[in-house]
Amino acid sequence: MKDVSKLILEDGAVQNRSIYWDQDIYEQELEHIFARAWLFLAHESQLPNTGDFLTTRMGEDNVIVARQADGSIKAFINSCPHRGNVVCHADSGNAKAFTCAYHGWAFGLGGELVTVPLEHDAYYNAIERPRYAMHPVAKVESYKGLVFGTFDAGAPSLRDYLGDMAWYMDTFLDVPGGIELLGPPMKSILNCNWKVPTENFIADGYHVGWAHAAALKAIESPLSPLVGNQAYDVNTGLQVTTRGGHGFGVIWDAAAAIHPVGEAYAQWLAQRTPIMRERLGDWRAKFYNGHWDASIFPNCSFLYGTNTWKLWQPMGPHHIEVWTWTLVEKDMPDELKQMMVATNMMTFGTAGMLETDDGENMEQCTGSNRGWVTRRGKLFSGMGQVREGHHPELPGIVAKGIVCETSNRGFYRRWAQFMSGKSWDELAREPGNAADKREVA
Questions:
Q1: pLDDT tens-digit readout, 118-164
Q2: Active-site annotation holds for 120
Q3: Which CATH superfamily is domain 39-142 in?
Q4: DSSP letter (8 states) at residue 6
């Protein structure tokens, strides 16, 4: 077991390169992070009816997520307790039961064993059915339509896990009618470590004007002034990290900035902003009109404005599968929803212009650590460390401007806390960082 105290240093600002490459560290992540944290499973809009199901992964564990007859949602490992075969091969659908193709064992919507072929003639009625139910996900909860699960029965509630991030996410979750995810998800493979895209999306405003320079020019985005990192106005946005390791950066008044034909979206925002101001106050009405890049610890990311919703599914320390949906407000007209889907595909879909920029960099950031000497080095995320702190009105640790690494540090502090194997009570008592003693305007 690796000594985590030597992997993340200087309050999250320094990372040992081995965390992006070593197999033993990855195995520790599966045990201490993916087997304990709340992981995104679905949006309720994807499972409207009894028997609706989808298959996904929690870490590298395959799971089935299904709507029950009582309206609740349950999840269980997609592996037959008899000989281990995958029970359900479909990505989604509607079913009354799930039947293993190997020997015909059948399971109900809650994972309970309901049918065993030759149960009387070959098993002599000795099968203890409850003992051979499919392995359940210990807790499945929904926060305003977003469904998460955890294998840890002792985990705090999903709302407590999201912490301050929930206050910010209410900005778009509390819209009249709520939100939905449009799919099925686009899927692709990237040869990178799962942490690299998570930290990129958690608020890397530094790369936007450089890595995406050509794409921003091509789509004639209002963000084009960022091209080349020639100038920077710290008042254009801010960055936030929370104790849970979740975080985001926002560019003010830029929600429609990536959309080539953004007038319809801008009009929609203008129409809804007074409602959001009345519901949530001035600050969150301001966030509602901003463009966010955000991540929910450990591996769920989204861009509000571009409205892409992503999962970085780990496939070993050097590979991930990227799942991408389009996030929209349910009450949007169909034409606006389809415009947002088209923009998402063009920018952050499998072959999107911005996705391609990011993917190449993410793969190189991982692959460079292949070298024995290289991986013994360290990486630095110290930008803005001395200018972050508490805001008089906003929760979390806040830094002015989008070009800083406040959220990166918060992510790696939380990563180190999980990897230490501490209990949930110990995690809740973790001391803050130096920024807890500072105030920001």
A1: 999 999 999 999 999 999 999 999 999 999 999 999 999 999 999 99
A2: no
A3: Rieske [2Fe-2S] iron-sulphur domain (2.102.10.10)
A4: G
